[in-house]
Amino acid sequence: MAVTYLMLARLPEGGLGAFDSYESAVLPLLAEYGGRLERRLRTLDDQVEAHLITFPSSEDLAAYRADPRRSAAAPLLESSGAAVELLAVRDV
User: Fold this and answer.
1) What residue ranges do the domains of the chain occupy?
2) pTM confidence score
3) At the top level of CATH, which class does the domain 3-89 belong to?
């Protein structure tokens, strides 16, 4: 059964460039694991980004998160200073 996740990233001042570089590296990997980016939203002040992402299963998300290319891009995320939260969500 498909699982939907809400990813929230809170970005400090000056972190947007590194965060965008990280996203450019990792978002294209989603499809390899059956993931689909449903929505990508950012606040007008560029300090919070939200993604609504669907995977066929939680195992597919785990495989995506373990991808070595994603790990290789992790220093970009770290240098952005983003605080990231990932929540499994459902329609109500």
Assistant:
1) 3-89
2) 0.91
3) alpha beta
